[in-house]
Every structure is written in structure tokens, then in C-alpha cells.
Design goal:
Elements lengths: L2 E6 L7 H16 L3 E6 L5 H12 L5 H25 L4 E4 L6 E3 L8 E4 L2 H8 L3 E5 L2 E3 L5 E3 L5 H11 L4 E6 L20 E3 H9 L7 H9 L4 E5 L7 E4 L12 E17 L4 H11 L7 E5 L4 E9 L3 H15 L3 E14 L9 H11 L6 E5 L2 E7 L3 H11 L11
Parallel strand pairs: 1-2, 1-9, 2-6, 3-6, 9-11, 10-12
Antiparallel strand pairs: 4-5, 7-8, 11-12, 13-15, 13-16, 14-15, 16-18, 17-18
Helix pairs in contact: 1-3, 2-3, 5-7, 6-7, 8-9
This protein binds adenosine-5'-diphosphate (ADP), aspartic acid and magnesium ion.
Length: about 400
């Protein structure tokens, strides 16, 4: 007898019919003799609707009350799914995140899971019940309700699987697996048989919304095998595991992209000790996440500095820079909105020089101007105009032969 954690995302539990379908998938696993813990998201676009209502009240609502509001979404689903399982003749019990023993940091909106007390879930599993847990939520030390960041139900599932020492964690969603790129944008995207933890972590961090990055981090740290699969179609999904051989010797496994990026450039920075640390400490203190950073020195012994941030942080970043302008003594700041980041990811890059060069020449051939670049061992990211984002992804998908991966496997 095994222990399986299954997670079903928003579309998969979008209405009562879909919840029936989910219940059947859970029952199939239980009928195989497994203990089952199910993690669910809020139904359909519920979280977006809740955010929308809050924004009608205030542009900047209290983060504590936002968490109070958003966690209700998942609670609807757990109640409905547990009832459905009971109606079908199976013993089931639903738990909120805090009832399930999920303890998080004291941060609203983006808390990390610190610890899970599995006693209650284990007792229920031992007495033969299916346990249904609300994703995306937990409680901090002082009893405040917290959320794990958008898409965080994946992380609830993997963290529970790790804590319960589950045999497997299956992430059921609205696509049949992890694709070479987002199939919603690129029709020739192909499903991958497997992806390594490291590649998936890069893809998730670089914008592939199919898995929450922290879920992949947990899976890697605890060596938890993950499978991403469809809640509707009964086909093999994508395995995420430690070692994965490259498909047909390709160097790139996938392409991730995201828009909503702004480049900030500071001109005329004095070249002296402490300048960069003053700027980036001030931004960090104001919770502004900086991504790519480029510094160039000009002949007059002043430097220009560019960095990329999320466009939603632009106003706050400009305010911070204005506040430190006098002490740091730079000349002026310029911003460019409407940018996107397109990244190629693959562990095959480590041993293949020239992958970045090929990426740049493909973009040049498509007349796409590269505004910023960053690399790691297994990825190359470029910042380009958001208008050319999908065109860039399509060109790279062809150039790195990702469309040649067979769509259906025998
Ligand atoms: P869920 O509600 O089940 O958590 P999400 O919307 O969070 O579902 O994630 C699934 C979506 O991720 C897909 O519909 C797809 O558009 C998007 N996606 C982005 N990149 C990829 C990729 N490389 N492979 C598969 N899906 C991707
Ligand atoms: N319901 C939350 C969201 O929409 C969490 C999740 O679905 O994973 O972000
Ligand atoms: Mg998701």
C-alpha cells in the first residue's frame, strides 16, 4: 500500500461536474489500495475574482485581510470535494491549511512553508479516510492566516508529499504535461517525457507558469518524484526527476517567457566604493526585486547602470531612486516599459559552447533587438520588446529543433 498526494488546479475543479471528475480520479487511486491526500486550488478564476473585489475597495488593501479573503477560495473546493467523495461512498475529510498543520513564515501574500505537523492527517489516513487539503495557505506562529503566493497550491502538495514521505506527488492540471514551451501561445509546443529538477526550477522561475517554483525546490530537496498530468485526458504526463537524458541530443529542453518587464537605467553614476550597494540595498529594503543587472563604465569615469524589474514595481523603484539621488549623486534615470524576458533552458548547454551565440543570431535574423542578457550554466535569458515575445519564442523553438520532438510517443 502506497501513499500518493494528488493536486488539482483551478480549471480542474472549475465547476461541480469537474469536481465529480476529480473525485473519480481520487477514487481510482484509493481503489488501487493507496492512501490518498488531495490538495486543491480555488475553483476556476475564483482567486482573480476575489482580488478584483478587494481592488474595488482599495488600491492597497491590508495584506492580512487579503490573505483572509483569498484563502476562502480553496475552502469552497475542499468542502465540495469531500462531500462528493462521501456521496460516492468513500470516507473523506477536508482540512484547511492550518488544520493540516502547515506552518509558515510571518509574511502575508508570499509566505514560505517552515514546517508541517502531519499528526492529524496521519490519524485520518490510518482510519481509512481520504484527506482533502486546501492549497496555497498556512498559518504563522502567532496564528495569522498566510498565503504562499499565486500558484502556491503546487507547493502545498509537494511539501505535504515530502512531510508524509509519500511515494509520489501527481500534479493534475489543464495541460497533459510540461511542454517545450507554453502550448497556449505556441501551437507546435511538444510534451516532454521528463525534465530534471534543475531545468524545471529554471523554467518555473523564468515564467513557465505550469509549476510554482517553490514546489520544484521542495521536490528537488526531498527527491520527491513529481508527475505533471492532465485531469481530463488519461494520458502519460511529464516526470520531473533528478537525472534526465536529453531528447534526441537536443541542447535546449524548453523555452520560458514572461512580459511585464521594465528596464531602469541610471546615467552618470560616480565610480566609487559603495555606490552599487547603496542603490541595491535601498531597492531591497523596499521589497523591489531586481533581476538582470548591467553596468558599463564610460570614459569620464562615470558609470551607467541598467537593471530590470517587474513593471508593477516601477513607480516604487523610481521613488526609491529619487530619495537616494542626492546621496549617491547620479545624473538621471530613464525607464523603458513594455519589455519581456525570453529564456532558453537545458542541461545540455553545460557542455555545448555556442548556445548563447546561436540564440543571439536567431533573434538577430528575426530582427529582434536584444536589450539585456543574463546566463547561468543551464539557461540564457534575453530581454526584448514584449511585442516581439511570441515571435522570438517561435523562432527559437524551431531553431533549437524543439518542434521535432515527437508529439505522441509509442
Ligand atoms: P493549475 O490551475 O492547474 O495550477 P496553471 O494555469 O497554474 O494550472 O498551469 C497550467 C498552465 O501553464 C497551462 O495552461 C499553460 O498555459 C501554462 N504553461 C506555461 N508554460 C508551460 C509549459 N512549458 N508546459 C505546459 N504548460 C505551460
Ligand atoms: N488559488 C491560488 C491562485 O490562483 C493558488 C493556486 O491556484 O495554486 O493563485
Ligand atoms: Mg498553477
Amino acid at each position: 500500500m502506497g501513499l500518493i498526494v494528488q493536486k488539482f488546479g483551478g480549471t480542474s475543479v472549475g465547476d461541480v461536474d469537474r469536481i465529480h471528475n476529480v473525485a473519480d480520479r481520487v477514487i481510482e487511486e484509493a481503489n488501487r489500495g493507496n492512501k490518498v491526500v488531495v490538495v486543491v486550488s480555488a475553483m476556476g478564476k475564483t482567486t482573480d475574482h476575489l482580488v478584483g473585489m478587494a481592488k474595488q475597495i482599495s488600491a492597497n488593501p491590508s495584506k492580512r485581510e487579503m490573505d483572509m479573503l483569498l484563502t476562502t477560495g480553496e475552502q469552497i473546493t475542499i468542502g465540495l470535494l469531500a462531500m462528493t467523495l462521501q456521496k460516492k461512498g468513500y470516507e473523506a475529510i477536508s482540512y484547511t491549511g492550518w488544520q493540516a498543520g502547515i506552518k509558515t513564515e510571518s509574511v502575508h501574500g508570499n509566505a514560505r512553508i517552515l514546517d508541517i505537523n502531519i499528526t492529524r492527517i496521519n490519524e485520518q489516513l490510518e482510519s481509512g479516510r481520504i484527506v482533502v487539503v486546501a492549497g496555497f495557505q498556512g498559518m504563522d506562529e502567532s496564528g495569522q492566516i498566510t498565503t504562499l503566493g499565486r500558484g502556491g497550491s503546487d507547493t502545498t502538495a509537494v511539501a505535504l508529499a515530502a512531510a508524509l514521505k509519500a511515494d509520489r506527488c501527481d500534479i493534475y492540471t489543464d495541460v497533459t504535461g510540461v511542454f517545450t514551451t507554453d502550448p497556449r501561445y505556441v501551437k507546435s509546443a511538444r510534451k516532454l517525457q521528463s525534465v530534471s529538477y534543475d531545468e524545471m526550477l529554471e523554467l518555473a522561475n523564468l515564467g513557465a507558469g505550469v509549476l510554482h517554483p517553490r514546489a520544484v525546490e521542495f521536490a528537488k530537496n526531498y527527491q520527491m518524484p513529481l508527475e505533471v498530468r492532465s485531469s481530463l485526458e488519461k494520458v502519460e504526463g511529464t516526470l520531473i526527476e533528478e537525472e534526465v537524458s536529453m531528447e534526441q541530443n537536443l541542447v535546449v529542453r524548453g523555452i520560458a517567457f514572461e512580459d511585464g518587464i521594465t528596464r531602469v537605467t541610471i546615467f552618470g553614476l560616480p565610480v566609487k566604493r559603495g555606490t552599487l550597494s547603496s542603490i541595491f540595498s535601498a531597492l531591497a529594503e523596499n521589497h523591489i526585486n531586481v533581476d538582470i543587472i548591467i553596468q558599463s563604465i564610460s570614459e569620464e569615469q562615470t558609470a551607467n547602470l541598467s537593471f530590470s524589474i517587474k513593471t508593477e514595481d516601477m513607480e516604487a523603484a523610481l521613488k526609491v531612486l529619487d530619495e537616494i539621488k542626492e546621496s549617491v549623486q547620479f545624473e538621471r534615470v530613464e525607464t523603458e516599459k513594455g519589455l519581456a524576458k525570453v529564456s532558453i533552458v537545458g542541461s545540455g548547454m553545460v557542455s555545448n559552447p555556442g548556445v548563447a551565440a546561436e540564440m543571439f543570431s536567431v533573434l538577430a535574423d528575426s530582427e529582434i533587438q536584444i536589450k539585456m542578457v543574463s546566463t547561468s550554466e543551464i539557461k540564457v535569458s534575453t530581454v526584448i520588446s514584449a511585442e516581439q515575445m511570441v515571435q522570438a519564442v517561435e523562432a527559437l523553438h524551431v531553431a533549437f529543433r524543439l518542434d521535432e520532438i515527437p508529439a505522441v510517443r509509442s
